[in-house]
Amino acid sequence: MRRLRSSAPVVVVVAAVLLLAGCGSGGPEDPLTDDTTGPPTFANPVADLGNDPYVVEDGDRYLMLEARSNGELWLTASEPDNLTDLWSGTRQKIWEPAALGPACRDVWAPEIHHGDGRWFVYLAATSCDGDNANHRMYVLESEGDDPFGPYVDHGQITDETDRWAIDGTVLDHDGQQFFVWSGWEGEVDGQQNLYIAQMDGPTSIIGPRVLLSEPTEEWERQGMPVQEGPQVLERDGALHLVYSTSASWTDDYAYGLLTLTGDDVLDPASWTKSSEPAFSKTADVLGPGHGSFVLSPDGQEDWMVYHATRTDGWDRMIFAQRFTWGEDGTPDFGVPVPADVEQAVPSGQVAAGR
C-alpha cells in the first residue's frame, strides 16, 4: 500500500528491468548541483526496457524488484533520496525458481511488502512446461528485517478454488489484511477479473474469494476483457484501487479506478468504478499502465512509475511522472508525459553520487 513516509520501512519494487536513469552523477555541470542551470530535470523513458514497475519506499531510499527472463528476482536499493536514478544503487539476486516444481517459469509482476519486521515478496509463476493456465501466486518471507534476505519460500498463496491467479497485492484496511489479485472465474482464459479475500497473515488466505470487479465497460474490453495489476492508493482516509485494463498487448491498455464508497471492502457494492479510464493513451504514449505509486523524497509530491510504449505490444519502456489529487479526493493522473519532454525531478531529490 502507498503510505506516507515514516521511520518504519516502506518499499519500492519494480517487476521489470527498471533502469531508472535520469539526473547525472554530480560535478560542475550537474543540474542538481549547479543552481545557475535552473531546476533539475529528467526525461522519459527512465528505462528503455521494462514491465510492471512496482515502486515503494524504504526510509530514505527506494527499492526496485525485477523479474528477469530466467525467473530470477533481483532487488536494487537506490542511493539516498533518488527516485529517477534508481539503477545506480546496490543490486542483488534474492531468489531463483526451482528447476522443478509449480513455480518454475514465467515469473511475473513481483511485489515486496513490509510488515512485523519482515519482508514479503508476492509473485506469479507457472509450471516448467510454460503453460499459462498453471499460473498461480506464491509468497516469500525474509528471515530478518533485511529486504535483501535471505528468504523462506512459503509456496502458493490461494483461496480454496485454486484458480488461475496473477498480480497479487496486499490491502490493509481497518486493522485487517486482504489479498487482491487478477484471476479467471473458471479454468479457461478469456476474461480476467479482480478478486479479493481476507488474509489471516501475510502468507495465507482465509475464507472464500469474492468477485470484486469485472471488465464490463467498452474501454476495459479492448483486445480482451481484462482487469489486472491492482494497486492500493490511499489518501486522507479515502481508499482506491488502481487497476490496469484491456489487453496488455494493445495500445488501449489503461488505468481504471475503484473507490471504496461503502463500508465493507469484501462487498463489491461498496466499490464505485470510474466511468472512464483514469489514465490512457495519447498519440505519443501508447498502452500506459501497470505501475506503482510513491512519494517524492521529501514526501511533498505524489509520483507514479508505469510502463508504456511508443510502438505497440509488449515492447515497453518505463515512464515516471508526478500526479495530483482532485477536489473530490480522487487521484488526477493527467495524461502521459511524452518521451524526451523534460520534467522537474521529484522534490527533495538528491543527485546520484552525492
From TrEMBL:
Q: GO biological process annotations for this chain's record?
A: carbohydrate metabolic process
The cross-references to Pfam families, in alphabetical order and at most eight, read:
Glyco_hydro_43
Signal peptide (from-to): 1-21
CDD domains to which the protein is assigned, alphabetical: GH43_LbAraf43-like
Q: Which GO terms describe its molecular function?
A: hydrolase activity, hydrolyzing O-glycosyl compounds
Question: Region labeled Disordered — which residues?
Answer: 28-50
> Mind listing the UniProt keywords for this protein, alphabetically?
Glycosidase, Hydrolase, Signal
Biased composition regions of type Low complexity, renumbered to the chain: 28-41
Marked site: Important for catalytic activity, responsible for pKa modulation of the active site Glu and correct orientation of both the proton donor and substrate: D167
Superkingdom of the organism of origin: Bacteria
Q: Which family does it belong to?
A: Belongs to the glycosyl hydrolase 43 family.
Can you name this protein?
Glycoside hydrolase family 43 protein
